[in-house]
């Protein structure tokens, strides 16, 4: 039988997920959610972080409202202190006497790329997937955090789905031109990707502001299992835009998305950010609003999604298959080209 501190077996638990920004955890303990469970994440000092179930065993007060002293998390109610492994270190009222053998469940915790990451299972990799081009010479980076009323797989599809951009982001990012675009779906050893050829850029404010349409563009949308999307735009004049989104499942129907945008534009990098950053927030806000409408309508019709797919829905079957396979502890299908599809965008 599973207790609240013992989640059901799920292979997706064996991966790293972003819990919080490192700078926020250094200021004070953070209350976070992952797979519907609650944790207190804190900085032990010296760049070491820990995550405990967010409940003091003494009187069930959230540990996340406490403070850190001598590398331990001290409960705000009676001062019981717990080390990074969840062991009871001190009960102040006992004045140094022996403490009972009490432990709060702890989960794997690490810091990378400015984030604190959690793994509540057995880590499938020793470290989280790194974000591309952070601190790389010539690149400028900014970050966004967005909450979606949707599960991880819906978010991943949204970030990697070109057809919706023609309608949800009409004239901002794409506009309907009706031009044929070759989309090559490839299954990778760690997920799947689509490579686009001859993609139209006219009638797009983003490309009008950020890139000369006379250059050649290479566009790849990549799903990295189990919960990451990466979009790359490379141009023949050396410019490069990367949008990587790491999805944290707060619960079955809510996802916190941490997006890192890195780009190389040359000497105008700082000026480009003045336009690119607010525009990125605006565009992702359109997705948040649309997916909220999606969630509300599914709830209105009984709460169960009934999706009807077409040949244009290239990555969703791959995302679903990968995540279901990993959750069950199975082996993914072999890498290779899956198919080529003509889309009209």
Can you describe what's shown?
The chain is of the alpha+beta class and 345 residues long. It is built from six helices and 18 strands. The chain has helices at 22-27, 152-159, 162-168, 205-210, 269-300, 316-327, and strands spanning 17-21, 30-34, 37-45, 48-53, 67-69, 72-74, 81-82, 88-90, 106-112, 115-119, 140-148, 180-188, 191-197, 217-224, 228-235, 240-251, 254-264, 336-344. It has an eight-stranded antiparallel beta sheet, covered by helices on one side. It has a six-stranded antiparallel beta sheet with strand order 1-10-9-4-3-2.
Could you name the ranges where pLDDT drops below 50 across 5 or more consecutive residues?
A: 1-6
Output the number of helix runs: 6
In which order are the strands of the major sheet placed? Answer: 11-17-16-15-14-13-12-18
Number of DSSP strands? 18
Shape: elongated
Radius of gyration: 23 Å
Residue-averaged pLDDT: 91
Descriptive labels:
disordered N terminus; six-stranded antiparallel sheet; 6 helices; alpha+beta; elongated; 345 residues; eight-stranded antiparallel sheet
Could you write a compact summary of the structure shown?
The protein has 345 residues and is of the alpha+beta class. It is built from six helices and 18 strands.
